[in-house]
Design goal:
Radius of gyration: 23 Å
GO biological process, one term: alpha-amino acid metabolic process
GO molecular function: pyridoxal phosphate binding; transaminase activity
Distance between the termini: 52 Å
Cofactor: pyridoxal 5'-phosphate
Domain Aminotransferase class I/classII large: 68-413
Number of helices: 15
Strand order of the largest sheet: 2-10-9-8-7-3-4
Bound molecules: 4'-deoxy-4'-aminopyridoxal-5'-phosphate
Helix content: 40-55%
Shape: globular
Keywords: Aminotransferase, Pyridoxal phosphate, Transferase
Length: 423
């Protein structure tokens, strides 16, 4: 029916056709795959949580105040003055070769032997997540992921209409038996499992780390079931005692696509990350990268490259670690001191996050507006699951606020929880 044939007055009831069109006149034009694209709860929260009176334990912003801003600024202007014609020009879709060599050195700190040819530089590892999902997932394909999992990865999987099946974790990370069960179940249902997406180190949001024994077992299970592993490791160098763990990639180079990032070890706003992939996959990734961005930003890559060549970047990572350890300690002791009986939480050895479970009857999503009124924000657990779980959980980030603000934030949160438990 054309609009000239439909003289009925528009009634703006939510969900009615005119209401949908009023909200977005393009509603009927979008591709079917956009149905899975919904605003993340965390993004929606950013606006309120960033008001100065609110202590935000919600976001995962790195604490860049620890960076040597003066010398970086000098270096950046020098870069444009001396090498501007290269730095401001298009570059290779795969990324600047010198940077790819340096990335190999960075990965060597976690026991990875790699060739620069097998690296594709990306606009943050988020772009890697998008490209890998684009390459491997048809609508309905299964991606197995820890439950809970990184919200940005869930967004990529949803954007390509993959079905996420969560597997349980405990204090030693992903439970191998749960993985076996999920694989058996998918097989029984005739579904194709395309990827195991995992964050083995200092998990976002769970704060736990996969034990070394389990790493070997998980690699073996995936080889047995012919499932490719997508290993996401932005926090691996942020272990508070400087400890690193063998990457899954180092255990099975042919069956792992590895995602790395400078967001947490240097500067998130530069948006420089990378994918390390088996050779054949790397070729496809370059094509995918080309169609997405032509090439990653040359200037930003050169900034990272110069920083790695001239700054004590390992010392800088140590400074970051010390900063985050102090904040983690502040959070754990405040939780111990203030949180009501019946709450439990993880004790991260690195990274940015603590995962809290609250007593039965408390719904963290429903409680959030009341927490914001009490001037504290957190990320409620449901955003980290694709299947609606997580209503008794929340993620608390200690990476950004000062220890003092963290203590105050946890004190406020405890007050909100106590009144919630009395309801
Ligand atoms: N993976 C995980 C587990 C993350 O926590 C993040 C950022 N919070 C990313 C990927 C994306 O990082 P970036 O794009 O900044 O490299």
């Amino acid at each position: 029916m054309t609009s000239s044939q439909s003289p009925q007055p528009a009634q703006y009831r939510p969900g009615s056709e005119p209401a949908r069109q009023k909200l977005d006149p393009h509603i009927d034009r979008y591709a079917a795959r956009t149905a899975g694209m919904t605003a993340s709860e965390i993004r929606a929260l950013f606006a309120v949580a960033s008001r100065p009176e609110v202590v935000s334990l919600a976001g995962g912003m790195p604490n860049l105040a620890a960076l040597p801003l003066d010398s970086l600024s000098e270096q950046m202007s020098e870069l444009v003055a001396r090498d501007g014609l290269v730095a401001l020009q298009y570059g290779s879709a795969q990324g600047v070769p010198a940077l790819r060599e340096q990335i190999c050195e960075v990965m060597a700190m976690e026991g990875i032997t790699a060739h620069p040819d097998d690296i594709v530089v990306t606009v943050g590892s988020q772009m890697g997540l998008d490209m890998v999902t684009r390459l491997f997932c048809d609508p309905g394909d299964v991606v197995i992921a820890e439950g809970p999992s990184y919200v940005g990865a869930l967004g990529s999987f949803a954007a390509y209409q993959a079905q996420v099946v969560h597997v349980a974790m405990d204090d030693d990370g992903l439970v191998p038996e749960a993985l076996r069960e999920a694989l058996a179940q998918a097989k029984q249902e005739g579904k194709r499992v395309k990827l195991l997406y995992t964050i083995p180190n200092f998990h976002n949001p769970a704060g736990v780390t996969l034990s070394v024994e389990r790493r070997a077992e998980i690699v073996e299970i995936c080889a047995e079931h012919d499932v490719l592993i997508l290993e996401d490791n932005p926090y691996g160098l942020l272990g508070f005692d400087g400890q690193t763990y063998p990457s899954l990639r180092s255990m099975a180079p042919d069956n792992v696509v590895y995602l790395g990032s400078f967001s947490k070890t240097f500067a998130s706003g530069l948006r420089v990350g990378w994918v390390l992939a088996p050779h054949a996959v790397r070729e496809k990734l370059v094509l995918a990268a080309e169609s997405a961005t032509l090439c990653p930003p040359t200037l930003n890559q050169l900034v990272v490259s110069k920083y790695l060549a001239t700054h004590d970047w390992k010392g800088q990572i140590k400074t970051f670690r010390e900063n985050y350890r102090e904040r983690r300690d502040a959070m754990l002791s405040a939780l111990e001191q203030h949180l009501p009986e019946g709450c439990t939480w993880t004790r991260p050895e690195g990274g940015f996050y603590v995962w809290v479970t609250v007593p039965e009857g408390v719904d963290t999503k429903a409680m959030l507006p009341r927490a914001v009124t009490a001037r504290v924000a957190y990320a409620s657990g449901t955003g980290f699951y694709a299947d609606g779980l997580g209503s008794r959980q929340m993620r608390l980030s200690y990476c950004y606020p000062t220890p003092e603000r963290i203590r105050e934030g946890v004190r406020r949160l405890a007050g909100v929880l106590e009144s919630e438990m009395e309801l």
